[in-house]
Amino acid sequence: MRSHGLESCHLEKRSWPIVTDDNFENAGLEIELSRKRLPEITTHLEEGKIISAAGFLGVTYDGLETILGRGGSDQTAVFLSYLLRERYDVETILMKETPVQSADPAVVKDQTLHNIPFMTYNEASKATVSGMTIVQNAAVRLAMAHRLPVKVVPLHSPEAGTIIQAEDPTSIIVKCVTGLTNCAIITMNSERSRSLEDCLRLWEGYDSFLDLGTEVMETGQVIRDFLILSADFVRRHESQLRSFDKDMVIEYGVGIVTLIGDKMKDSAGTASIAVGSIPDINIKRGVFAPHTSQIILVLEEEDVEKAIRRIHMQLGRMNKPAGPQTPNFPSST
Q1: Collapsing DSSP states into helix, strand and coil, what is residue 82?
Q2: In the list 6, 56, 142, 294, which could disulfide-bond 72, CB 3.0-4.6 Å?
Q3: CA–CA separation, 70 vs 124, rounded Å?
Q4: Conformational region of residue 323, where left means phi above 0, alpha means psi within -120 to 50, and beta covers everything else
């Protein structure tokens, strides 16, 4: 930047403004301690300098380096914006290689993809845990907690940016279709499942799982299924997981396809269109909960990409005609 005549600087470790706890590889943010270090940033800004900062680094209160974990760069940008907005008007922009689109372009190659102009915090949070990787979930949750709008802008086409905020001014019903493989289903005695659920949330702060509900067997036993969104997590902790129920059944090789959209709760027929587009694919489980802004289909891992392509072709049917300012997605052919 200096070579282009721009006044710039970088922050030294001793004055690093992002203070975290001592969970060194997946550190949590300490807001009040970080707020006390805000002058380390504002001093340079008042001098008209552009600040460069590492996108994943934190420090404990006594100066030990930590890592914010996956999505650290996005989280750093959102957190610094949150701190700075107490003093300045801020705009949080995350520059990305590609825009936020209606499906993964690596999966849906022969259809028209649609840029998403707006996503609510809720939609973005659901999408980023179910396969969307452009923005990281930790950053979205941080923005949601502090009601901080975030703009995701592709480097080569900034006009195709997406604003993540509390409200959605559009009429689009289904924003995107996401997919995630390498999941696992845990089936266990329902009476013992509550202690497992509590432990999972405390265990490394792990909350990437879904309760698929209960079923009464012919023997009268009540079993409960959990969908774990990372089979690697299950493999690492399988012996500990089985300690909750020696008869636990673990099914690997599954994945999910998720439809995302807050407005699905007010629109009938979305799930039936999605299911009708994949008549030859075995749906192991279905979470038809549009009131939570998502419809989840649990499939064999090998069927996930095929299902995404088929369902994405039906976005035009799912997104009913809207007003002239918010045209619905056309059917892809």
Answers
A1: helix
A2: 56
A3: 16
A4: beta
Q: What is the mean pLDDT of residues 219-223?
A: 92
Which of the 8 DSSP states describes residue 38?
A: T
SS3 181: strand
Token pair for 325: 């300012």
Residues in CB range of 163: below 8 A, 6 or more apart: 117, 118, 119, 149, 150, 151, 152
Q: For 241-270, what is each residue's pLDDT tens digit?
A: 999 999 999 999 999 999 999 999 988 899
Place of tokens 């996956």: 70
d(CA 131, CA 294): 13
Same domain, 83 and 188: no
Q: Which amino acid is at 270?
A: T
* Residue type at 164 in one-letter notation: I
Q: Please state, as a whole number, how many other Cβ atoms lie within 10 Å of the Cβ of residue 169.
A: 10
Residues 197, 297, single domain; the answer is yes
Domain count, the chain: 2
Domain enclosing residue 219, as ranges: 177-318
Residue 84 sits in the same domain as residue 191: no
Question: CATH number for the domain including 26?
Answer: 3.40.1160.10
* 21 token code pair: 């706890």
% pLDDT > 70, the chain: 95
Chosen domain end from 57, 75, 90 = 90
What is the amino acid identity at position 255? G
